Amino acid sequence: MELKVSDLSVARGGVPVLSGVSFDVAEGQALVLRGANGIGKTTLLRTLAGLQPALSGNVDFPEDTGAYASHTDGIKTQLTVTENLAFWADVHGADLPDRVFKTFDLEDLRTRLAGTLSAGQKRRVGLARLGVIGRKVLFLDEPTVSLDAFSVKMFASWLRDEHLAQGGIAVIATHIDLGLDLPELELAPFRAAADAGGGSDEAFL
Amino acid sequence: MIALLRRDLALAVRAGGGFGLGLAFFLIVVVLVPFGVGPEAELLTRIAPGILWVAALLAALLSLDRIFALDFEDGSLPLLATSPLPLEGVALVKGIAHWVTTGLPLTLAAPVLGFLLNLAPSAYLWLLLSLALGTPALSMIGTFGAALTVGLRRGGLLMSLLVLPLYIPTLIFGAEAVRRGADGLDPSTSLLMLAGITLGSFALLPFAASLALRVNLR
């Protein structure tokens, strides 16, 4: 299994933001995307995950193995932590493993309504979702937002010891150091030229 | 898909889920009409089928914008779109969940409210039947409208404008079935048309809704 991205161009709202992005991520490897705000990290991740079409280029990884996680967690505030995770496990046809509560330090929060959690705790539930859905290729957009240093470490060790160690792949956009010594890709050189074709007509189509 | 249906139904009955909203609206409209129209029993009998159907339609409309908007806001929708569930299936389940939480209670409550409007005795069965056949179409058409406008700020009004014209055939045949039933005529043509609209919308609109969702998620 491998994630291959070749000569990918992506657009946001019809305006090309990145062009000619190419990289490979092998099994058990992760790639960290770096770049200033607005460079197109989120757009690139959404394109990789298949939520929006690419302007050109190819994204290649085994079908039905990708998962996307963004700033919003998809956590229902009226459901308990367990119900939320059980739902996502169910949707992906997986079981809810008990150890995921331990891994993400949610043991004491199992029966709490997600609406009563703090931002960081909610984020941990959102990350725990990645642990229950059993997807191999993860596209993570700022996974550590609102996490404290301890939780960041917890997430990093899950990523290394459970996800990547079992042959997973991850592409992560983040501004902080996860402390994992992962290869990085600086996106600034791929910035699309302001008048790159296709964009300006979009509004009239 | 069963998991999604179960979750949506669980959400609907919990705090802030809006389960009783449509039903309460239906009740209020039907209770208010006799006060507005006056106490002429004959007049009420004549307008009862139309009032009940219009009120049911508006009650269904009331909760449509929640179908996808909440999932869009908390980020569930892109996650569902990248999950193994086909988006067509998601739209279908959303339509079914909307019907179970609004259309079904409306159908069951309608005979009781028909009593308040002095509905002709022979029409009760047809009222129940026409609503049971017609309200699923309201939910599915509404799901399509909600998919078209998901992500728009204040998309509710635009959605109503889009959806109401599509509701008109259902309304015409629904009210007509009850009226014919009340007059002792054979309502089967209208009921067949209602069933046709419902089946057609369940067969086609999930595909249209999923396309609309895909465009809106970009």
Automatic annotation (TrEMBL), chain A:
E.C. number(s) listed in UniProt: 3.6.3.41
Enzyme type, top EC level: hydrolase
Protein name: Cytochrome c biogenesis ATP-binding export protein CcmA
Keywords for this protein: ATP-binding, Cytochrome c-type biogenesis, Hydrolase, Membrane, Nucleotide-binding, Translocase, Transport
GO molecular function list: ATP binding; ATP hydrolysis activity; transmembrane transporter activity
Claim: Transport is one of the keywords in the record: yes
Every ABC transporter domain range: 3-205
One matching Pfam family: ABC_tran
UniProtKB/TrEMBL annotation, chain B:
Alphabetical list of PANTHER family matching this protein: CYTOCHROME C BIOGENESIS B-RELATED, HEME EXPORTER PROTEIN B
Domain of life, source organism: Bacteria
Gene name tied to this protein: ccmB
Membrane-spanning parts: 12-37, 43-64, 96-117, 123-150, 157-178, 190-213
One family name in Pfam for this protein: CcmB
Function: Required for the export of heme to the periplasm for the biogenesis of c-type cytochromes.
Name this polypeptide is given: Heme exporter protein B
InterPro entries linked: Cyt_c_biogenesis_CcmB, Cyt_c_CcmB_bac
Molecular function via GO: heme transmembrane transporter activity
Claim: Metal-binding is one of the keywords in the record: no
